[in-house]
Predict the structure.
Amino acid sequence: MMKRVVLAVIGLMLISSAKGVEPEHHLNSVSVFLGVAGEGRRQRAGSVGLEYERRLGETWFVAPALEHAFGDLDFSIVTLSVGYRFNRWAIFAGPGIEWSESHHGDESGTESEFLIRTGVLYEFEVGELIVAPHAMVDFVGNEEVGVVGVTVGMSF
């Protein structure tokens, strides 16, 4: 299911008009992320996060993010993505770490794994707010984890 969503978003991106008006942006933005992971590793866990974006020019940007996936599982994710914008679309990728608290009887510990996050987003403005639906795939361990969601934020 998640692969179909990602493919549909990429397909829309490819058939959308290359011409368009790029919205005027400031160099910085901060957004709150709300999303859900696919089945499998994160078992359809909901997630909430915070993203910061710093533009490096007209098209390139860097975006650190911190997310917490909750539900039956309890994961935290930190990523640092580099992205490229064209019109209102953006593609991004970068490394990250996924960690979780594990509790086994009287013992507890933290397990962490390296991940690579890839994604695509479409950004539009609603008044003073920036709204951006996301479709992402995290490559962690030997698994692919699809994540869909939306960020709502402000530029400054």
